[in-house]
Amino acid sequence: MNLQKIDVDKHRDVIISFRRESFKVSFGTDQDFDEEEYVRWVQDQSALFPDGFILLMEKGVPIGQLELTVKDYEDSKIGYVNLYYLIRERRGSGMGNKLHQYALQFFRTQGVSEYHLRVSPSNHQALGFYGRNGMTVLKRELDGKVFRMMGRVEDGL
Fold first, then answer.
1. Residue 49: which CATH number?
2. Domain span holding position 109
3. Environment class of residue 157 by beta-carbon count within 10 Å: exposed (0-12), middle (13-18) or buried (19+)?
4. What residues of the chain score a pLDDT lower than 50?
5. Which pLDDT does position 93 carry in this prediction?
6. CA separation for the pair 83, 64 (Å, rounded)
7. What does the alpha-carbon distance between residue 144 and residue 1 come to, in Å, rounded to a whole number?
8. Total tally of structural domains belonging to the chain
9. What is the pLDDT of residues 92-121, one digit of tens each?
10. What is the rounded CA–CA span in Å between residue 112 and residue 31?
11. Hey, which bits of 27-101 come out as E strands?
12. Within 13 Å of residue 56, how many CA atoms lie on the same side as its CB?
């Protein structure tokens, strides 16, 4: 297993496929997913945070993806997990821990002590993973469609 920075030109089809699947898992549909808008966003954000846009590879095949950034939230800088993704066959296998440890290290290097993400309340597998990794629900957002969750970088040591 190794981690590789996303090259949008080279990995375009993979990242679109993984993000589309994450929409389906989270919201039951990918109807609101816009491929071109997503690719532009990844290009822009990965230029700002090149170490935050990562594929998890197994024998040369992408099996997971991370999208990590830093944002302003309520007058402070926080880490933000835009995407934790593992292919269905590798969920529950411990591979998520490899992605999580990478995320914590990324946030440490960015100098943030807290990180957030949003998750669908119906995504029980993800909620379990986040809870096991010390994250807690802060509040509901987007008219109740998602939970905003928060974790502390030092809790993941």
1. 3.40.630.30
2. 2-156
3. exposed
4. 157
5. 79
6. 10
7. 37
8. 1
9. 777 888 899 999 999 999 999 999 999 999
10. 34
11. 53-58, 61-73, 76-86
12. 24
